Fold this sequence. Notes:
The first copy, chain A, has helices at residues 5-12, 19-27, 84-89, 110-119, 121-147, 150-160, 162-167, 170-177, 181-194; strands spanning 30-34, 39-41, 49-55, 58-63, 69-75, 80-81, 96-99, 103-109. The first copy, chain A, is an alpha+beta fold.
Amino acid sequence: MIESQSFLNFIRSAPGMTVQEEEEILDSFKAVALKSKEYFLREGEICKQIGYVVKGCFSYFQLLDSGRKSILEFAFEDWWVGDLPSFLNKKPSGAFFQALEDAELLCISRNAFERMMAASAAFRYLFHLKTQTAYLKSLERSPKDKAESAEEKYLRMLKDYPQIIQRVPHYDVAAYLGITPESLSRIRKKIAKAR
Amino acid sequence: MIESQSFLNFIRSAPGMTVQEEEEILDSFKAVALKSKEYFLREGEICKQIGYVVKGCFSYFQLLDSGRKSILEFAFEDWWVGDLPSFLNKKPSGAFFQALEDAELLCISRNAFERMMAASAAFRYLFHLKTQTAYLKSLERSPKDKAESAEEKYLRMLKDYPQIIQRVPHYDVAAYLGITPESLSRIRKKIAKAR
DNA sequence: CGATTTTTTGAATCATATCAACGTACGTGG
DNA sequence: CCACGTACGTTGATATGATTCAAAAAATCG
């Protein structure tokens, strides 16, 4: 069992969790290790598990018709990987999850997930909390994504997620911002000069 | 009580719903009418109710620092209005909900919402289904929003939500697409000529 | 090291924004 | 019912920001 205090804290944050429930939940997660560049999930596959990121980081992206990569988000420590539409509805995923660093995960299979969803109110609470948090985050981000210039998006990313620019290759940062690597390079140059 | 077959259908879609539960849920929603241009919620207010749109349509938007309006989405019949982060966490809303036509809603107050969330598993199911659906939709849309040109966004909107261009002023359509009204006008002209 | 990948730079081009002006439709009060 | 005023939508000219393509420089990895 991988040690992860923050995973324990997350599990224990559910109200009304019994000792037995907690043990069952912890038992339903299995440790998985992935090397950098390996995929947790590929487009077209059905997502058979959801993973909690203990260590490492992942990009969650789609390949567009144009061939360009569009990164929806990065998952660092204490966030989750797995394609929810695919996992819940057993349909092929439209996206990839790829490790950008060597990574350690705690994964729950669909069988175990369904068992726990049926058996444990605390587990249901945690799952709905997670999807709700993700949804609220996406609601906040969307209007800004729409209206901001490339430079504004970059500056906001630095403010909200300073670790991204440290840990992620710039061409992936560009794919996350929806701009080209060349544009990102010019924006960074301009900002560096201005200070 | 406003008649709305699709609202009834929605409520009845919950598995394991008892007759008594259904009655309690229906009783917890009150009819509200709004005139065109009126606000269901303003920025800075705390969202005290969630509304099901029986008739009419709403824009859900933020005012950006630049003074520009950024429309996150429109809510037509059978969708919902209300700022979830504000409603759930009792914090001031960062967004507006404004009626674009005379509208009829079925609204549930926070008190009634919390009572039903505590009392009814079927109600919890419906709520989580709604937020999850909205979240999955936002996940699908986001990579496209990032990478598409203005014209592509417009064409996709026509395909996915053909009613928007019929019922919403063009400057609001532009605010939804993240472009200027002038650009929208030129895109429409170009498309009209091409056919 | 050497090879490959990643980032930067330059020049030309394209898409969209901006600003200003004009047309058109709509609703209201006379 | 008409005229007027206000909203909305369109058009044109120009400016700006971002992309594209090509190539060089820098960083990384085995």
